[in-house]
């Protein structure tokens, strides 16, 4: 009788239906254009293509770039997108068997092998570093500013990380640097002795470190908008040379979405050439 009053079906509780990676991805994305453009190589001779350093940001690269799709708990599928011409094929990876992600979450990540200690005290573990976010628990965040997408990614990492369970794969967010402050990135580089290898260049983050492979360069503003710094107040402003208008805050038309970001960003594959 009570069940009828509350309109609750008189049925045993059933396990939720298992989601299909390909079907769920198509439902979320709608179209595939966001993944059509891979990172463009940026040899040192082409660094001159970055005209205004205030328009660009960078972060370190330490592993393989993957697109991850979470279907709930440890049901996580990956697609390696550093192989040009590779057909989109979702698969589970052994390194990610203990990674936990909420369902309908799609992230672009850097799969990194992290180290602690040196020599005989060396410990190693795979970690996932978020580069960008497309969907978080079914919410489309592709149109948000890159800064806001990373802020949501940090909240996701804090929610799903379980420090009390050492076997789980930790999720972190790559620190982003302005090109005007790139010295702060290079100051974290030092040489470490890794067991079985020659001393290698390492990017340190607290007690953890990993061997970097390159740099990610990406633009946070959409053409023709550009960022500058006022000489009198040392505060940023945003300028449109076509309309000759300036704003103190980035207008919606200037925000680079995930799709736009994919089309203009670069990856420098050899870090030592930049040092």
Care to describe what's here?
The structure is a single chain. The chain has five helices and 17 strands. It has 275 residues and is of the alpha+beta class. Strands 3, 4, 5, 6, 7, 8, 10, 11 and 12 form a nine-stranded mixed β-sheet that branches. It has a five-stranded mixed β-sheet with strand order 1-17-13-2-9. A three-stranded antiparallel β-sheet has the order 14-15-16, with no helix packed on it. A hairpin with a 6-residue loop joins strand 5 and strand 6. The chain is globular.
What's the layout of helices and strands?
Layout lengths: L1 H4 L15 H9 L10 E2 L14 E6 L1 E8 L5 E5 L24 E12 L6 E14 L2 E2 L5 H15 L10 E3 L3 E2 L4 H4 L2 E4 L7 E6 L2 E3 L3 E6 L6 E4 L6 E5 L4 E3 L10 H7 L1 E3 L7
Parallel strand pairs: 1-17, 6-8
Antiparallel strand pairs: 2-9, 2-13, 3-4, 3-5, 5-6, 5-12, 6-7, 10-11, 11-12, 13-17, 14-15, 15-16
Helical content stands at 10-25%
The residue-averaged pLDDT reads 82
Main sheet? 9 strands, mixed
Radius of gyration: 21 Å
Series of secondary-structure elements, N-terminal to C-terminal: HHEEEEEEEHEEHEEEEEEEHE
How many strands appear in the DSSP assignment?
A: 17
Proportion of beta-strand residues: 25-35%
Alpha carbon gap, first and last residue = 75 Å
Which structural class do the helices and strands define? alpha+beta
Stretches with pLDDT under 50, minimum 5 residues: 269-275
Q: How many helices? A: 5
Q: Based on CA inertia axes, which overall geometry fits?
A: globular
